[in-house]
Every structure is written in structure tokens, then in C-alpha cells.
Amino acid sequence: MAPVAKFWAGASLLGIVLFWNAPLLFKLSDNPPRVPRQNSTLILLIWSWPFRAATDLTGDVCSRLYGITGCQLTTNHCLFSQADVVVFHHWELQYERRYLLPSKAHPGQKWVWVSLESPSNTKALEGWTGKEWNWVLSYRRDADLFFPYGELVPHSLDVVEIPEKTGLVSWVISNYRDSQARAAMYRNLSRHLRIDVFGKANRKPLCPDCLLPTISKYRFYLAFENSIHRDYITEKLWKNAFLAGSVPIVLGPSRANYQQFIPANAFIHVDDFSSAKDLATFLTTMNESHYRSFFAWKRNYMVRLHQDWRERFCSICQQYPRLPPKKLYPDLKRWYWDY
């Protein structure tokens, strides 16, 4: 074959190869594989901000608010291909799943599944391939990123002040369903003593600034969880009871589980009594010395609430070097319901 003919034949073959592989070449060019950069800023993309609430991410928010350096929080989807970590909050995910990208942008990218709701209130956990979720951020102590609703931190106090009390028991409830265990306990207990009920469910909503002052007037508060799961201890205890200065009567996981978070003498558990009548008798006959003993923890601890999602997300950057790099959750629902 003549040299010119050979040249054109080779060129034609090369053209065919380039034509059929053009999509792959463009994909590699636009989205090159990479691994998280070392000793530089970690890009953390929040796919949908929790509950679509607006928040301020300007500047170095992690450093400014929490002293965590080298962390860039963003909600800009244009940075997906560059993100080292992508965070998906489940409340939005269960509705926006059809918009989810089909795969990770590069081999080093990690995806984090986030939920602080109990399994009973978490839907659409099925149908994942098992390759999406590297880490979980949850109230569960066995999560990769453990973030409770609140915690007790060391604090020294010489004198414990207890707010003046004018009532016995209060409860703030927004979503009341007869089928819930807390509804049954409330009905049984209310037969034996007065319970003042506030909140949307009783058409007595409290403004944000009215919540704690109202609860503080009562000796006891019903810190009843909407569902019973291991480690599921919410703001009903940490904020509504502890911060208000009311002794919590808890309905949730076991007493032993609560005692992994708070002192044994800081709360009253409904399971400690054989009946609602016995619990009512205990509450109505308690002397002042016994009542004050429930506040002994305040001499050594104070409550720290975890309510800002920026804190939770910045902590991912802080813990990133210690997180297991090859972990996957092949069955997310099975893990979340294993309690």
C-alpha cells in the first residue's frame, strides 16, 4: 500500500476510535478522578440544607464559630465534582431522591447519610445499591458521627437555684396520636393527677420565648418521646426539662440507656413504676428534700444543646482523618432498625 494510502487508512481508524470514545474522553476531561487533597481545605457539600432552612455559610464559618480549620461548607451543586464529602439529610432525601446523582464524582468522594429522627419516623430507607453510604451522622452512639440532641458537660456551681413552682406536671405536645405509647401513658396518668398541657395539639401553642419560662413553673415535666428507640433522647429532656429547671419524667428507651447520658438521680422513668397510679402517688407525696435531690447534677454539670446544623457538619471535617475510609452501609434500613 502506498504511504499516502496508509496514512489515510490510519487516520480513518483513529477517527473511528475517537468518535466512539468521545463521551468517555469528555467525561474524563470534565470530571477527572481525584482523591481528597492532603493538608488543604476539605470541601463539604450539603446537598439539601436540613428542612430547607436558610443559613449563613459566608466566610470560614467552621473556624469562626467552632475553631475548626480547613473546612469549607457549601450548598453549591456546581462543586459536586470537587467535593471531598457530600452530605444528604434524609428528610429531604426521601422526597428528592429522583434528583440524586447516579454515582459519586470520584473514587475518593465520601457520602454521609444524616438523620436525627427515630426509625419509626424515617421512611424510604430501601432501594439503595449499597455503595452510596460511607458514613452515618445520627443521635445513635454507634454512628460514625455521633451527635446527640444535647449533653452534660463539666461545670462547677456552688449554689443550685430551683425556679419557683406553682404547678405539678406540665407537657408540651404538638403532634398527638392515640396510638403512641406516650398518649396512653398520659391518659392513664391524668386520671390520677392534673397535667397542664400546652402546644398545638391542645390548641395552646407557646411562643419560643415562652416555652422555658412556662415549663419552669412546674415541678415535673413529661419528657415523653414520640417513639421508643435506643439512644433516642431528644430536646424534650435536654431543653424542655433540664434547661427549664423541671424534673423530667421520661418515656423512651430503658433507664439503663438514659443513664449512659445522664445521672441516675436526675430523672424519673415511667418504667420504675408498676402503674400510672403508683407514679402519680410518688409525684404527689414527694417531700421537698427528695425533690431537690433531682437537681444535684447541676453542681457538677451544665447542659449543652446541639441545635445548629453548621456545628454538626463542621464536625465531619474535624473527625474526617479518623473516619474509616473503606466503610459502606450495604443495608441502611437494617442498620437503622437494629436496636
From TrEMBL:
Membrane-crossing residue ranges in chain numbering: 7-26
Claim: Lipid metabolism is one of the keywords in the record: no
Subcellular location per the Swiss-Prot or TrEMBL entry: Golgi apparatus, Golgi stack membrane; Membrane
Catalytic activity: an N-acetyl-alpha-neuraminyl-(2->3)-beta-D-galactosyl-(1->4)-N-acetyl-beta-D-glucosaminyl derivative + GDP-beta-L-fucose = an alpha-Neu5Ac-(2->3)-beta-D-Gal-(1->4)-[alpha-L-Fuc-(1->3)]-beta-D-GlcNAc derivative + GDP + H(+)
A GO-annotated cellular component: Golgi cisterna membrane
Pathway: Protein modification; protein glycosylation
Its EC number(s): 2.4.1.-
Keyword Plastid attached: no
PANTHER family, sorted: ALPHA- 1,3 -FUCOSYLTRANSFERASE (PTHR11929), ALPHA-(1,3)-FUCOSYLTRANSFERASE 7 (PTHR11929:SF12)
Annotated ranges, domain Fucosyltransferase N-terminal: 41-150
Pfam families membership: Glyco_tran_10_N, Glyco_transf_10
Name of the gene: FUT7
Taxonomic lineage: Eukaryota, Metazoa, Chordata, Craniata, Vertebrata
Keywords: Glycoprotein, Glycosyltransferase, Golgi apparatus, Membrane, Signal-anchor, Transferase, Transmembrane, Transmembrane helix
InterPro entries noted in UniProt: Glyco_tran_10_C (IPR055270), Glyco_tran_10_N (IPR031481), Glyco_trans_10 (IPR001503), GT10-like_C_sf (IPR038577)
Name of this protein: Fucosyltransferase
Lineage: superkingdom: Eukaryota
Domain Fucosyltransferase C-terminal residue range list: 163-335
Protein's membrane topology: Single-pass type II membrane protein; Single-pass membrane protein
Organism: Pantherophis guttatus
